[in-house]
Structures are given as C-alpha cells and as structure tokens.
Specification:
This is CCHC-type domain-containing protein. Keywords: Metal-binding, Zinc, Zinc-finger. It holds the Pfam family Retrotrans_gag. By secondary structure, the protein is α/β, with parallel strands linked by helices. Among the domains are: 112 residues, no CATH class; 159 residues, Acid Proteases (Cathepsin D, subunit A, domain 1), CATH 2.40.70. It has 10 helices and 16 strands. Strands 2, 3, 4, 5, 9, 10, 11, 12 and 16 form a 9-stranded mixed beta sheet that branches. A hairpin with a 4-residue loop joins strand 13 and strand 14. Helix 2 runs antiparallel to helix 3 and helix 5 crosses helix 6. The chain is extended. 20% of the residues are buried.
Length: 425
C-alpha cells in the first residue's frame, strides 16, 4: 500500500515537472501588473483580473491597488468621487455600478441630442429624375454623417486639437453632439414585416415609413425617410451591399452637396440600383431607381422626384401620408427591424411530404428518447469546474435570455442549479 502511494506521488511529481509552469506565481504577478481595462467592459476586466489574482498569491490590499491602477480613466474619476471600499469584491461591484451609470448617461445625452429639432430648407431642383441633366451640384441631405476621413485630414485635426467627427474645436469625438446615435458604430438596422396598414412615423423632424423593395424574386422592407429636401431617391451603400441589391454604374456621375455647402468625403454619386419594385403602404407598386450614397442614419430616402410622381398628401403635424384618400396609420415608434426575403417557403415541397412531421414545431417541445448509442458524459468527482467569461447584455438581450430560460424550464429541458465555486467569475 505504501509502495503504491510512493509510486503515485512520484508520478504526480513527474507530471508537474513536465507540464506545470514552475514560474506560475511570478508570471501571474507580471500579467496582473500589465493588465489594463482599456476600451473593454469593466466586467471583462474583472473576469481577467480574478483569474490572475488566484495564481498571484497577492494579499487583498495589493490586489485592490493593482485593480484600481488598471481601470479606465472614467472609472478612476468615479472612484475618486465616491471613495474606494475596503474590500476587493465591494470595489469591483462599485466599479460595475459606476460603469453602468456612465453608459446610461451617454445614452441619455445621445437621445437628448437626437430629439433637438433641426431646421433646414433646401430649394428643390427643377429636374424630376434621379439623374441630373447638367453638371451643376444638387443640394441635398442624406443622413448627418460624412464618409471616412483621409489620413491627411485625420493628422490635421489631431494637430489642431479638433473633433475627429465634426472638425470643430472645443470638444472631442466622444462629446460630439453631431455624432449620430448608432449602436456599436453600425448603421441602423433594416425594417421587418409590416401589416397591410403601413406605418408612417414622425421621428423628431423626419417622416419615416416602411418601404418594400422587390428584385429577382426577393423582397425586403426597410425604413425610408420622406424628404422634400432631397433631390432624388437614395439607398445606403452598406445596406445595398449587405442585401445584395443589384447595382450598376451611372452613365453620368454627379456631385452632391450637404446643407453647409460642402461635399461629402465619399465623393460624387457613381452607382445606382437596377429598377426595383417599390411599395409603401397601400400605394400602388412603383418602379424606382435609387442612387447609392453613404447614409448611416436612414437606409433609404424618398426625395422630391418620388413626391412629385406620386403627389401624396402629407400631414406633417400628425405624421400621416395619404394616397388615393387612404391614410397610413400613425404610430409613436418604429418596430424592431429585420430582413425578410420572399424565398422562404410556407409549403413543404412534394419531395419531402413523407417527412411532414419533421417540420412541425410540436415535436420540438419534447426531448428525444434515450437510445443505446447515446454517448455518456462521465463526471469526475472532485474535478475543477471550468470557468468562462462574463458577457454584458443589453436590456433586450436580457429579456430574450430570461424568456428562453423560462420557456425551457417549463418544458423540463433545463433545471436550476447552484454553483458553489463562484470565485471563478
């Protein structure tokens, strides 16, 4: 018995010498010293910090000091105002709370700026076509953002201390009021299904409606701004590319002009879509050609040529549009947006009629029966529980997660468990 124990101990020692890190504590201490939050969420920084802290063998005062050292400047300022708690766990909890308040305040500032009315007037061009008949610049507004900056312009703004977004002095890009409120820097998402009574929404000073586009047997619905100040009909370049809408080069490229008289950095309009079948609400189908421009705020713009062709009655106060005495219904907000393609079939092909039960949802409410060839998952007693990262979720994501968990708890697919080893998080 003693001999077996010695052999086992010798084996473990040999395995440690072969595979274990002999400098684990020193390496963890060095990694802690180099760990910074940077632009990451504080939850991710806390997760990485705890993993290294377990290996470093530092005492709590040293860990608190190092944790504060690696925080972002905004959280350091928040701790300076509130004070530092005596324990590491309380300090981490306070940082999470401060970080959430900072993000909420940023969202409030963005919403307040977005609700500020913008007065504008652009004289309409005489031409009704989306293709101009001369080389004169046409005044229009497509979104509130310009294209990407050149390297020379970036260097100039950095050297003069100007905002990297609007180019004005006195503030930085994170404080810029002209920066659009787009999530994670991406354009607004596309619109989803709409009912037969389409939705027209008066958003701030803009009139927004769902526009249905069809091409090559596909259909999609997205948000379109009805803009009498725009000279033609426009689609956002990134939206056009992501949806696979066919485009072609314009026979006669032309420059566009923003409200301040300047030209966008994207340059002249050089591409347009092929003829698309366009429908808004109960309006009869129309054939439109859209010019392709960068428009991160609005995926589509219906301009003056569309208004002249259809001649709708617009109630700007109530946000309604009338075609042939049939009003659009008005709503206070735009629904969550998605992409819909007509390629989705509602009927099962004849070749798969014998597999009809596979396509029924009721079968998904029951767990499959146990079979003799099921692979077992053997749990090792005393084995360490693996740990993972904590990913911050938005409110809609949290609601979806709660709904998913509640639904599967009722079905019996999952069971509530309590993990004792909480320190890994």
């Amino acid at each position: 018995m003693c001999r077996d124990y010695i052999r086992q101990s010798t084996f473990y020692k040999a395995m440690e010498e072969m595979y274990d890190d002999p400098h684990r504590v020193n390496n963890a201490a060095q990694a802690l010293d180099n760990l910074k939050q940077g632009r990451n969420d504080v939850e991710e920084y806390i997760t990485d910090f705890k993993h290294l802290a377990l290996e470093s063998e530092w005492n709590e005062p040293a860990l608190i000091a190092q944790f504060r050292k690696g925080l972002s400047e905004a959280l350091k300022d928040g701790l300076a105002r509130t004070g530092v708690p005596p324990s590491l766990d309380k300090t981490m909890s306070l940082c999470i709370e401060i970080d959430r308040r900072i993000r909420e305040r940023r969202a409030e500032r963005a919403n307040n700026h977005q609700s500020t009315p913008i007065r504008r007037f652009v004289p309409p061009p005489p031409s009704m076509s989306s293709i101009p008949t001369d080389n004169d610049e046409e005044p229009m507004q497509v979104g509130a953002a310009r294209g990407p900056l050149t390297e020379a312009e970036k260097s100039r703004r950095r050297s003069l201390g100007l905002c990297m977004y609007c180019g004005h002095a006195g503030h930085q890009v994170r404080e810029c009021r002209e920066k659009p409120n787009t999530r994670m820097g991406k354009p607004l998402a596309l619109h989803a299904f709409v009912s037969v009574k389409s939705i027209c929404t008066a958003m701030s000073t803009h009139l927004i409606g769902p526009l249905s586009l069809q091409w090559d047997g596909r259909i999609t619905t997205l948000n379109a701004m009805i803009d009498s100040g725009a000279s033609g009909c426009f689609l956002d370049a990134e939206v056009t590319h992501s949806l696979g809408i066919p485009t072609t080069s314009k026979k006669q490229p032309y420059p566009i002009q923003l409200l301040d008289g300047s030209s966008p950095l994207s340059g002249p309009v050089t591409k347009e879509t092929t003829p698309l079948i366009a429908t808004i609400g109960k309006q009869p189908q129309d054939i439109l050609i859209f010019d392709i421009v960068p428009s991160p705020l609005f995926p589509a713009v219906l301009g003056l040529n569309w208004l002249r062709r259809n001649n709708p009655t617009i109630d700007w106060t109530n946000g309604t549009v009338t075609f042939n005495q049939k009003d659009f219904s008005t709503t206070s907000e735009i629904p969550q947006t998605q992409i819909h393609t007509a390629a989705m079939c509602t009927e099962i092909p004849k070749a798969y009629q014998d597999l009809h039960s596979v396509f029924e949802k009721k079968g998904a409410d029951d767990l499959p029966p146990f079979r003799t060839y099921d692979c077992p998952i053997d749990l090792l007693p005393g084995a360490p529980i693996p740990h993972g990262r904590i990913y911050p979720l938005s409110e809609p994501e949290l609601e979806s997660l709660k709904e998913y968990i509640s639904e599967n708890l009722k079905k019996g697919f999952i069971r509530p468990l309590t993990i004792v080893q909480w320190l890994v998080f």
